Amino acid sequence: MTSSSDRSAKAPGADLIARFAAIVGADNAITDAAEQAPFLREWRDLYVGRTPLILKPATTQEVSRILALANAEGVGVVAQGGNTGLVGGQIPSESGAEIVLSLTRLKQIRGLGADGGSLTVEAGVTLAEAQAAARSAGRLFPLSLASEGSATIGGCLATNAGGVAVLSYGTARALVSGLEVVLADGSVWDGLGALKKDNTGYDLRDLFVGSEGTLGIITAATLRLYPEPVERATAFAALPGLDALLPLFQLAEAQAGASLTAFEFMSGELLGFVTRHIPGTQRPLAGEAPWYVLLEISGAAEGRATGLLEALLAHAATAGLVSDAAVAGSLTQAAALWRLRESASEAQKGEGGSIKHDVSVPVGRVPELLSKAADVVARISPGARPVPFGHFGDGNVHYNISQPPGMAREAFLAQWDEVARAVHDVVTSLGGSISAEHGIGRLKREELVRVKSAVEIDLMRRIKTALDPNGILNPGKVLSR
Questions:
Q1: I need a surface site. Which of 23, 277, 297, 320 has the fewest CB within 10 A?
Q2: Tally of domains within the chain
Q3: Which domain holds residue 184?
Q4: pLDDT tens-place string over residues 37-67
Q5: What are the residue ranges of helices labelled H in 27-148?
Q6: Do 6 and 96 touch, CB atoms closer than 8 A?
Q7: Is 7 within a domain?
Q8: One domain for residues 258 and 340
Q9: Number of helices (H) and strands (E), helices first, in the chain?
Q10: Nearest C-alpha neighbor of 280 from the set 329, 230, 332, 219
Q11: Among 307, 323, 346, where does a domain finish?
Q12: Which helix (H) or strand (E) holds 99?
């Protein structure tokens, strides 16, 4: 998961550090090791980096001046938002050569579109803050993640985050109409338009969304807003077996159509982890089942969503697709059901080491992935416990595996590369992707070369060279040197 090539060409000396610090002011230039620590550790502890300097600019102009200086001096720059990334893209290397650019002070909400259909915010605004700003205007910004209280808009766009609402609204890429981006040389591209149609040449916006800070640094974005649903109906259903998962989704899609806004699944063993390790959670259904689904239907009229959901569950029970279900009778009950799903990652920490995968396959092949991946994991690591969950409706599976009981954490994690390669081989054999919503970062950059064609890798390298010829933007991430 690491490489000896993870080092920038040049580390800044004391004089250069002082020049960088002068751009943001001494109070926003962090050199103390203790103060730096929260910025240098990925939350799963897969990566712990070092840096001579963390800068916290407050304006796009300050970001521009920092990059212009870094580019002229050949200093690597790692942009960071809320530090919620899961592939190491936001963490500097262990060499201590790169500086970190924390964008959390870019907090302005610049304005609401005249028709209420868009909201322009700066990169350091958290996802929760953007959602609240939309709500205050009677609108919905639908991107939703478990980490939305700390994940920033800039980070979500840089990684093309997905979340639980992709089924209806798409990934982050579909939820942004314009960007403001600072390029490697410090020049600023103002592309903050709110047009739904613009066919004037290459789509620069889509080039930067998902590029993980390797092509430019997003400093602001114009987000697409939607009408707030009048009603949401939520249920947690138990399935008798894996073979019920796809037919239940197809039934839900057929009966609810566009009103089906979430179809999240998790294994029965994972639900046990959640109720065992997350205080205040409890099983919503009596007994145990091998698989569970959280469904949400949204409606524009009071009572319609609830009626659709109840009819769907009745039909599913008759067809033998659901063995039991709990329908939320209040917003509090709905939040409790969602907490079971949103705590899935956190709960795994209580079971020791985890080997995690963020993959996608065509929706119709998700059950096949779950079955075949379980077989390869059992062969490589007998006793390991697959606890998959994810966004079934868009084919995104978080195929996570907890260590065998009694096995040392370090010994299990030492199998990461072998297990990951085997799972990724299953995914690619099913026409899938090794990264659905977390990105590549450092964690998957060698795998990217293995699963992508030589033509694709060459095109990516050409784009990187054209936009960042000195290689200062997030060195060693996405594409290895």
A1: 320
A2: 3
A3: 109-227
A4: 999 998 888 899 999 999 999 999 999 999 9
A5: 33-36, 60-73, 127-136
A6: no
A7: no
A8: yes
A9: 17, 21
A10: 332
A11: 346
A12: strand 99-102
